[in-house]
C-alpha cells in the first residue's frame, strides 16, 4: 500500500480515524452519500456482473472515453469509488487499483465488488480533501461524477495533483451546464418552483432528493479547474440523455458536435512543477 498515515485495516478496508473523517466532512454529506452512493442497487442484491453490464450499457461511451485498458501494470487511485464497478474495471484490465471513499457504505460495497470481480481490494476510507498518500505515487487518478459535489473542489484538485507522478493522468467527469438535461430536466420541468438555478440543480441532479451540493460547469469552466496543475487539458462531452417526469436517463439523438450531453470528461497531465 502507498498509504502514509496510520490506518487501521478492518475487514479489508483501511480506515482513517472516524472522528477525523467526520471533522473533514459535513455530516449531511456523509448521511446522504452513505445512503445513496452510485451504482449500489441497495436492496436489490444485484450481482457484480449485472451492475457492470447495466452501467456500461447505459453509459456506453465510457470504455472509449476512459480507456480502462491503457493502465495495465499502472497504479490507479479512484477518488469516490461508490459501488466499486469502475475500480473493478481497471483491475480487470490489469491495473493496481486503490479505491477511496469517505463513506463506510461505499468502501464496504467496493471491497465486496472487487472480491466478486476476482480482484484484490485495496480500499481506503478517507476524505478527498486530504488524501493520505505519498507525493507522486500514482500513474492515474480517476474520479467519475464526484468532484462536482464538493464545494472545495480546488482543494481536492490540488490534493489529486500532489499524489500524481509528473506526467500522470487525471481523468474525471463533471456535469455539463450546457446540456439538454440541465436545460430541460433541471430548469424547465421545475420552472414553477420557488428556487434559484443552483438550488434546482442541487435538488434534482441525482436519483434521490436531498443531495447537499451539486455544481455544473461548461467546458471552459471545467478546463479552468485544471490549468494550474495540469498540462494538455482536454474536455469532451458525452451522454446525450434527459430525465423526464416518468423516467431517468432517457437517451436522445443529438449530433455530437452540439456538445449537449450531461457528462464532461476532463483529462490532464500533471505538470512538472506545481
Quick take:
This protein is α/β, with parallel strands linked by helices.
Model regions low in confidence, pLDDT < 50 over at least 5 residues: none
Reported by name, the CATH topology is Rossmann fold
Structural class of the helix and strand makeup? alpha/beta
Describe the main β-sheet briefly. 9 strands, mixed
CATH homologous superfamily - what is it? Vaccinia Virus protein VP39
CATH architecture: 3-Layer(aba) Sandwich
Number-wise, the strands total 11
Bulk shape: globular
Can you describe this structure?
The chain has 274 residues and is an alpha/beta fold. It has a single domain, classed as Vaccinia Virus protein VP39 (Rossmann fold, 3-Layer(aba) Sandwich). It has ten helices and eleven strands. It has helices spanning 18-24, 27-35, 48-58, 62-66, 85-92, 104-116, 153-163, 180-188, 197-204, 219-224, and strands spanning 8-10, 13-15, 75-79, 96-101, 123-125, 138-144, 164-175, 230-238, 241-242, 250-251, 263-270. The strands form two sheets. The chain has a nine-stranded mixed beta sheet with strand order 1-2-5-4-3-6-7-11-8. The chain has a two-stranded antiparallel ribbon with strand order 9-10. α5 (85-92) links the parallel β3 and β4 (96-101). α8 (180-188) packs across α9 (197-204). The radius of gyration is 18 Å and the shape is globular. The two termini are 25 Å apart. The model has no long low-confidence stretch (mean pLDDT 92).
Amino acid at each position: 500500500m502507498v498509504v502514509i498515515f496510520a490506518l487501521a485495516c478492518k475487514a479489508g478496508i483501511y480506515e482513517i480515524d472516524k472522528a477525523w473523517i467526520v471533522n473533514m466532512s459535513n455530516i449531511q454529506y456523509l448521511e446522504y452519500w452513505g445512503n445513496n452512493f452510485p451504482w449500489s442497487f441497495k436492496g436489490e442484491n444485484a450481482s457484480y456482473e449485472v451492475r457492470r453490464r447495466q452501467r456500461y450499457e447505459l453509459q456506453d461511451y465510457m470504455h472509449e472515453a476512459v480507456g480502462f485498458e491503457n493502465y495495465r501494470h499502472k497504479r490507479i487511485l479512484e477518488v469516490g469509488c461508490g459501488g466499486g464497478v469502475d475500480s473493478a474495471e481497471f483491475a480487470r484490465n490489469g491495473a493496481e487499483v486503490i479505491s477511496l471513499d469517505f463513506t463506510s457504505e461505499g468502501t464496504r460495497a467496493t471491497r465486496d465488488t472487487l472480491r466478486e470481480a476476482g480482484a484484490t481490494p485495496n480500499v481506503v476510507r478517507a476524505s478527498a480533501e486530504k488524501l493520505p498518500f505519498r507525493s507522486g505515487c500514482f500513474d492515474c487518478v480517476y474520479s467519475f461524477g464526484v468532484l462536482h459535489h464538493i464545494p472545495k473542489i480546488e482543494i481536492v484538485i490540488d490534493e489529486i495533483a500532489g499524489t500524481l507522478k509528473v506526467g500522470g493522468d487525471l481523468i474525471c467527469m463533471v456535469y455539463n451546464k450546457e446540456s439538454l438535461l440541465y436545460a430541460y430536466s433541471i430548469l424547465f420541468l421545475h420552472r414553477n418552483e420557488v428556487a434559484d438555478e443552483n438550488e434546482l440543480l442541487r435538488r434534482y441532479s441525482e436519483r434521490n432528493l436531498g443531495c447537499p451540493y451539486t455544481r455544473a460547469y461548461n467546458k471552459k469552466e471545467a478546463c479552468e479547474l485544471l490549468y494550474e496543475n495540469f498540462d494538455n487539458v482536454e474536455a469532451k462531452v458525452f451522454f446525450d440523455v434527459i430525465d423526464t417526469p416518468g423516467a431517468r436517463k432517457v437517451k436522445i439523438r443529438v449530433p455530437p458536435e452540439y456538445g449537449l450531453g450531461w457528462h464532461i470528461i476532463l483529462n490532464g497531465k500533471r505538470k512538472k512543477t506545481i
